[in-house]
Amino acid sequence: MNQAPYSSTADIYFNGTLVSANGGIAPGQFSSQYGSVKPGVYTVDFKKTGTDSLLYELAAASYDTSNFYTLILYNTAPKSPAVQAARILDDFSSVTASTAYYRFFNLSPDMPNVDLYLSGTVAQLNRTPADNVTNPIYDEFQPLNPTVYNIQVKDANSDSVLATLNSTAMAAGSVYTIFLEGTSAGVILSVLPAAY
């Protein structure tokens, strides 16, 4: 996921080998399904597309065949080109066939405190940009009744609606990442179903 709107299109390298699609991943773009790599230890570099200019490097870590991971490139401050990246372990071990699951990421560097609402009911409070990187509990998938939801993100300080996504189906046995993206010029909500 390239969620660094103040940065550039990025290429991703695993141990020096380009693994992202030709042309790189533009800010706001993300893969709709998990990619695959051979199990092993990898250093992951995010570079400005078409150059050797390093945006960020994730330290060497093991990638295992029994696990799934989400890689996120994000801006570290409002209106700043400075970036960091994170590797998130996606744990599906508690997923059952009768329940839907979600997690929420605030990936807009300009939205300091937001609340998530699911069909008018508050689900999460005071989420800050990329807080899931430092608080892994936000990476965990939360159980949810499988149904159709109207999703809203509100400014935690003023209760004003920042973004809405109506009629979003959350199916039993499925897992979703809901995330806020964009800048103060305009934010949107996206829902990414786990697919491989």
Q: What is the element layout, followed by pairings?
A:
Blueprint: E1 2-3, E2 10-14, E3 17-18, E4 40-48, E5 54-63, E6 68-75, E7 83-90, E8 100-106, E9 114-118, E10 121-127, H1 131-134, E11 142-144, E12 147-155, E13 161-170, E14 175-183, E15 186-193
Parallel strand pairs: 1-6, 8-14
Antiparallel strand pairs: 2-3, 2-4, 4-5, 6-7, 8-11, 9-10, 9-12, 12-13, 14-15
Walk me through the structure.
With 196 residues, the protein is mainly β. The protein folds into two domains: 1-90; 94-196, Sandwich (Immunoglobulin-like), CATH 2.60.40. The protein is built from one helix and 15 strands. The protein has one helix at 131-134; strands spanning 2-3, 10-14, 17-18, 40-48, 54-63, 68-75, 83-90, 100-106, 114-118, 121-127, 142-144, 147-155, 161-170, 175-183, 186-193. It has a four-stranded antiparallel β-sheet with strand order 3-2-4-5, with no helix packed on it. The chain has a four-stranded mixed β-sheet with strand order 11-8-14-15, with no helix packed on it. Strands 10-9-12-13 form a four-stranded antiparallel β-sheet, with no helix packed on it. A hairpin with a 5-residue loop joins strand 4 (40-48) and strand 5. The model has no long low-confidence stretch (mean pLDDT 96).
